Amino acid sequence: MLRKKCHGRIFRCLVVSFGLNTQVLSHTVFKKEGVMDKRKILIVDDFQIHHIIYERELKDHFIVLSAFICEQASDFLVKHFDLDVIAIDAYPLNFSVIVNLVVKIREVYKYKGPMIAISNHAECQKGLLAVGCDYECGKPLYKERIIEILNTHASPMQKQANR
Fold first, then answer.
1. Which one, of 144, 145, 93, lies nearest residue 117 by Cα?
2. SS3 assignment, position 39
3. What's the average model confidence in pLDDT over 28-41?
Protein backbone atom coordinates (compact mmCIF):
# COMPACT_ATOMS: atom_id res chain seq x y z
CA MET A 1 0.00 0.00 0.00
CA LEU A 2 1.45 3.30 -1.07
CA ARG A 3 0.11 6.54 0.34
CA LYS A 4 1.08 9.90 -1.15
CA LYS A 5 -0.07 13.45 -0.44
CA CYS A 6 -0.19 15.83 -3.38
CA HIS A 7 -1.96 19.21 -3.71
CA GLY A 8 -4.19 18.67 -0.67
CA ARG A 9 -5.36 15.23 -1.82
CA ILE A 10 -4.32 11.84 -0.57
CA PHE A 11 -3.68 9.11 -3.09
CA ARG A 12 -3.86 5.52 -1.85
CA CYS A 13 -2.52 2.98 -4.33
CA LEU A 14 -2.24 -0.76 -4.41
CA VAL A 15 -0.11 -2.52 -6.98
CA VAL A 16 -0.76 -6.23 -7.25
CA SER A 17 0.58 -9.12 -9.29
CA PHE A 18 -1.72 -12.08 -9.88
CA GLY A 19 -1.26 -15.14 -12.04
CA LEU A 20 1.57 -15.47 -14.50
CA ASN A 21 1.56 -12.07 -16.14
CA THR A 22 -1.34 -9.99 -14.81
CA GLN A 23 -0.37 -6.72 -13.18
CA VAL A 24 -3.10 -4.67 -11.59
CA LEU A 25 -3.12 -1.11 -10.36
CA SER A 26 -6.00 -0.23 -8.08
CA HIS A 27 -6.22 3.24 -6.64
CA THR A 28 -8.48 5.40 -4.57
CA VAL A 29 -8.26 9.18 -4.62
CA PHE A 30 -10.12 11.28 -2.09
CA LYS A 31 -9.95 14.69 -0.51
CA LYS A 32 -8.15 14.88 2.80
CA GLU A 33 -11.14 16.23 4.71
CA GLY A 34 -13.31 13.35 3.49
CA VAL A 35 -11.06 10.51 4.61
CA MET A 36 -12.59 10.08 8.05
CA ASP A 37 -16.11 10.26 6.62
CA LYS A 38 -15.61 7.27 4.35
CA ARG A 39 -16.01 3.70 5.48
CA LYS A 40 -13.67 0.94 4.33
CA ILE A 41 -14.80 -1.90 2.13
CA LEU A 42 -12.66 -4.86 1.12
CA ILE A 43 -13.62 -6.45 -2.20
CA VAL A 44 -12.29 -9.99 -2.71
CA ASP A 45 -12.62 -10.93 -6.38
CA ASP A 46 -10.19 -12.52 -8.81
CA PHE A 47 -11.24 -10.51 -11.89
CA GLN A 48 -9.63 -7.13 -12.47
CA ILE A 49 -12.61 -5.71 -14.36
CA HIS A 50 -14.89 -6.28 -11.36
CA HIS A 51 -12.54 -4.26 -9.15
CA ILE A 52 -12.55 -1.42 -11.68
CA ILE A 53 -16.36 -1.41 -11.73
CA TYR A 54 -16.65 -1.55 -7.93
CA GLU A 55 -14.04 1.19 -7.54
CA ARG A 56 -15.90 3.46 -9.95
CA GLU A 57 -19.28 2.77 -8.34
CA LEU A 58 -18.22 2.96 -4.69
CA LYS A 59 -15.37 5.49 -4.50
CA ASP A 60 -17.66 8.41 -3.59
CA HIS A 61 -18.89 6.60 -0.48
CA PHE A 62 -16.11 4.20 0.52
CA ILE A 63 -12.40 3.67 0.71
CA VAL A 64 -12.24 0.66 -1.59
CA LEU A 65 -9.56 -1.96 -0.91
CA SER A 66 -9.05 -4.70 -3.50
CA ALA A 67 -7.85 -8.25 -2.92
CA PHE A 68 -7.47 -10.58 -5.87
CA ILE A 69 -6.50 -13.73 -3.97
CA CYS A 70 -7.25 -15.11 -0.51
CA GLU A 71 -3.74 -14.39 0.80
CA GLN A 72 -4.18 -10.71 0.00
CA ALA A 73 -7.50 -10.67 1.83
CA SER A 74 -5.77 -12.15 4.88
CA ASP A 75 -3.05 -9.48 4.68
CA PHE A 76 -5.68 -6.73 4.55
CA LEU A 77 -7.39 -8.12 7.64
CA VAL A 78 -4.13 -7.83 9.57
CA LYS A 79 -3.36 -4.30 8.34
CA HIS A 80 -6.90 -2.88 8.23
CA PHE A 81 -8.59 -4.03 11.41
CA ASP A 82 -11.16 -1.24 10.95
CA LEU A 83 -12.89 -2.64 7.87
CA ASP A 84 -16.58 -1.80 7.75
CA VAL A 85 -17.64 -4.48 5.28
CA ILE A 86 -16.10 -7.35 3.32
CA ALA A 87 -17.62 -8.40 0.00
CA ILE A 88 -16.46 -11.76 -1.34
CA ASP A 89 -17.02 -13.08 -4.85
CA ALA A 90 -17.68 -16.79 -5.28
CA TYR A 91 -18.42 -19.15 -8.11
CA PRO A 92 -18.56 -22.95 -8.23
CA LEU A 93 -14.95 -23.48 -9.38
CA ASN A 94 -13.36 -21.60 -6.46
CA PHE A 95 -16.04 -22.29 -3.89
CA SER A 96 -14.08 -24.47 -1.44
CA VAL A 97 -11.24 -21.92 -1.31
CA ILE A 98 -13.68 -19.09 -0.63
CA VAL A 99 -15.48 -21.12 2.07
CA ASN A 100 -12.13 -21.60 3.82
CA LEU A 101 -11.46 -17.85 3.58
CA VAL A 102 -14.84 -16.94 5.12
CA VAL A 103 -14.31 -19.39 7.98
CA LYS A 104 -10.78 -18.01 8.55
CA ILE A 105 -12.06 -14.42 8.57
CA ARG A 106 -14.65 -15.26 11.22
CA GLU A 107 -12.70 -17.71 13.37
CA VAL A 108 -9.04 -16.69 13.08
CA TYR A 109 -9.33 -12.93 12.53
CA LYS A 110 -12.49 -12.63 14.65
CA TYR A 111 -14.05 -10.21 12.17
CA LYS A 112 -17.49 -9.24 13.47
CA GLY A 113 -18.58 -6.86 10.70
CA PRO A 114 -20.90 -7.60 7.82
CA MET A 115 -19.76 -9.93 5.05
CA ILE A 116 -21.49 -10.07 1.68
CA ALA A 117 -21.47 -13.13 -0.58
CA ILE A 118 -21.33 -11.84 -4.16
CA SER A 119 -22.40 -14.38 -6.75
CA ASN A 120 -24.87 -15.01 -9.52
CA HIS A 121 -24.99 -18.63 -8.35
CA ALA A 122 -27.64 -19.17 -5.68
CA GLU A 123 -25.87 -22.28 -4.34
CA CYS A 124 -22.69 -20.25 -3.72
CA GLN A 125 -24.64 -17.54 -1.94
CA LYS A 126 -26.42 -20.05 0.29
CA GLY A 127 -23.19 -21.91 1.05
CA LEU A 128 -21.38 -18.73 2.09
CA LEU A 129 -24.31 -17.62 4.21
CA ALA A 130 -24.09 -20.97 6.01
CA VAL A 131 -20.39 -20.55 6.91
CA GLY A 132 -20.27 -16.90 7.98
CA CYS A 133 -21.48 -14.35 5.42
CA ASP A 134 -24.37 -12.18 6.55
CA TYR A 135 -25.81 -11.04 3.24
CA GLU A 136 -25.92 -12.09 -0.38
CA CYS A 137 -25.90 -10.00 -3.52
CA GLY A 138 -25.84 -10.77 -7.21
CA LYS A 139 -23.40 -9.13 -9.57
CA PRO A 140 -22.76 -6.35 -10.03
CA LEU A 141 -22.57 -5.28 -6.41
CA TYR A 142 -24.49 -2.03 -6.33
CA LYS A 143 -23.53 0.71 -3.94
CA GLU A 144 -27.11 1.10 -2.74
CA ARG A 145 -27.05 -2.47 -1.40
CA ILE A 146 -23.80 -1.87 0.49
CA ILE A 147 -25.04 1.42 1.90
CA GLU A 148 -28.25 -0.32 2.98
CA ILE A 149 -26.22 -3.02 4.76
CA LEU A 150 -23.89 -0.52 6.43
CA ASN A 151 -26.81 1.55 7.67
CA THR A 152 -27.73 -1.42 9.87
CA HIS A 153 -24.19 -1.74 11.31
CA ALA A 154 -22.04 0.64 13.32
CA SER A 155 -18.52 1.12 11.99
CA PRO A 156 -15.57 -0.26 14.04
CA MET A 157 -14.62 3.31 14.98
CA GLN A 158 -18.17 4.05 16.15
CA LYS A 159 -18.12 0.86 18.26
CA GLN A 160 -14.86 1.92 19.92
CA ALA A 161 -16.25 5.39 20.65
CA ASN A 162 -19.31 3.86 22.32
CA ARG A 163 -17.24 1.72 24.74
1. 145
2. strand
3. 59
